[in-house]
Design goal:
The protein is α/β, with parallel strands linked by helices and 238 residues long. It has a single domain, classed as Spore Coat Polysaccharide Biosynthesis Protein SpsA, Chain A (Alpha-Beta Complex). It is built from eight helices and eleven strands. The strands form three sheets. The chain has a seven-stranded mixed sheet, sandwiched between helices. The protein has a two-stranded antiparallel sheet with strand order 2-3. 34% of the residues are buried.
Length: 238
């Protein structure tokens, strides 16, 4: 019974690896963007809460550079933030940070979502669908269609591409643990731009699921204002 098999697979234990290794360079801030306040709390707290609220039983792992472990502890105390989570050491690159976090998971046959710390507006629907799809297909990578026209540069010229076939990748990117752990045994190369590229390089096909244009990545100063407007809009609708 395929339906029953999928349902049983979805009941696997779930993990979320939140990657918080970014600096504040493009935010024009000395404080890394995951710690900048959004509606009165650090961005990172919103992100962790989104996963906790969607799947209260899941286990959350925060991959954080060692230089900021003390700051994070201070912020948690200041904001009385007590959602359970484990901290692992951030690495030299995103790849190494995620590898450290994934290697810390000793349970077998679980589902692992990897998510950017600075995507605080991810919805419960997207998180839950990512786990469901990964349980069924092995992989689930969130993406949205490009809204803009696309041109590809080749030397001194450029050519138009069909935007209907272009997808912009977001997170979470969710995988069955055996696939993700095997993929992160590969040597690092700079062609690894996200988890999907790492898993794909190991020979596994990637399944895309629908993302959301409001699932923005906090990158530039104006993104904070946009995120606050989206949060306030959701609060008004409720």
């Amino acid at each position: 019974m395929p339906g029953l098999t999928s349902q049983i697979s979805y009941l696997k234990s779930k993990y979320a690896v939140i990657v918080a290794g970014g600096s504040g360079s493009r935010m024009q801030s000395a404080l890394p963007k995951q710690f900048i306040e959004l509606c009165g709390e650090p961005v990172l707290m919103h992100t962790i809460r989104a996963f906790h609220n969607s799947q209260p039983a899941l286990q959350i792992i925060l991959a954080l550079h060692g230089s900021y472990h003390g700051l994070w502890a201070q912020l948690c105390a200041k904001h009385s933030f007590n959602i359970p989570h484990k901290i692992t050491m951030g690495g030299e690159t995103r790849f190494h940070s995620i590898k450290n976090a994934v290697d810390s998971i000793i349970d077998d046959d679980v589902l692992i979502a990897v998510h950017d710390a600075v995507r605080p507006l991810v919805s419960a629907d997207i998180i839950n669908e990512a786990y469901r799809c990964a349980a069924e297909n092995g992989t689930a990578v969130t993406a949205v269609k490009s809204r803009d026209s696309i041109r590809q540069i080749n030397g001194d010229s450029s050519a138009s591409l069909n935007r209907d076939s272009i997808y912009l990748v977001q997170t979470p990117q969710t995988f069955q643990s055996a696939l993700l752990k095997k993929a992160y045994q590969q040597p690092y190369t700079d062609t690894f731009t996200d988890d999907a590229s790492v898993v794909e390089q190991s020979g596994v096909a990637i399944t895309l699921i629908a993302g959301d244009y409001s699932n923005i990545k906090i990158t530039f100063p104006e993104d904070i204002a946009i995120a606050e407007a989206l949060i306030n809009k959701k609060a008004t609708i409720r």
